[in-house]
Amino acid sequence: MEENLKKTCLYDSHVALGAKMSPFAGFIMPIQYTNITDEHNAVRHKVGMFDVSHMGEVFISGPDAEKYVNHIFTNDIRGFEPGKVLYGMMLHPTGGVVDDLLVYREFEPDHFLLVVNAANIDKDYAWMLSQAEGYDVKIVNESEKWGQIAVQGPESEKIVTEVLGLKPAADLSFYTYYESEWKGVRMVVSRTGYTGEDGFELYTDIEGTKEIWKILLDAGVVPCGLGCRDTLRFEAGLPLYGDELSDDITPVEAGLGMFCKLDKEEFIGKDALVQQKAEGPKKKLVGIELQDKAIPRATYPVETEAGEQIGVVTTGYHSISLDKSICFALVDAAYAPLGTQVMIRIRKKVFPGIVIKKRFYQTNYKK
Question: Which comes out higher in pLDDT, residue 1 or 242?
Fold first, then answer.
């Protein structure tokens, strides 16, 4: 099975470090190196790093680049300056999500970098090409040429500026970036991440990524696997495509309507979102805290006290940072208000829970 999976440029390092490797999004990826709790806490309290070279990089350029990106992207890039990063989604006409992604407006005019989820690279690229008719644009998938390392945690700025010598990184505000070079090769340094903490994502070529990873390892930065990447993003209330967003879950249902600018003239899926917002979504994504130590997992039913199923868990953990059992769940809208009492079925038993805000953990980082 492993021979059919892709490997990132840091695969050999993961194996040498004794990482537990597992399939993820068509890649063989490190789930943990020591244990999820230690890696999670390293990011929350100090600094950790992730191999995110499995993510996809698609470059869009040409006279119609801005118009085209605004057509396929829910957020609004009009008046969006070079050096800025925006989060948003690409939608089906039905309002379901093709993918959630980051859009970087590059410093060269009419150039954009779209960073997409690893599992969706081929699907997204094909979809972008299919939507480009009538637009004078060039769309290039360069995912296999780039590596990416995420340095995350309260000490990430110190590590990136002092250990790697990337001094301008200190001047970046949240969701901005600058371009540089690493050993003569193009490099993108952004103050972004997927943990709820301060952090940076470093993009460069394969050899540069290997070199940066080794420098960080030698400096004592804790390597972290996808296990704690999931617990961290979940505590911070961040969605995962395939769980909280999908072809069948719209941004309005997921509570991400603020990233869909309905005052734009048009974008794919806008009409469906306008209608859904006007009528009110039938389902909503909520946070739930269990009044027990039992752990809710994805696909577990959410029920009323009378035993009627009203939803399903999308992600659930016993929170490492909060020491509580919590989950995201997609439930009937009538049960979405904060404070609503619900039941989670875990195998043959049911456990009481209460609807709370989805951002479970509040970081000290001032964005």
Answer: 242
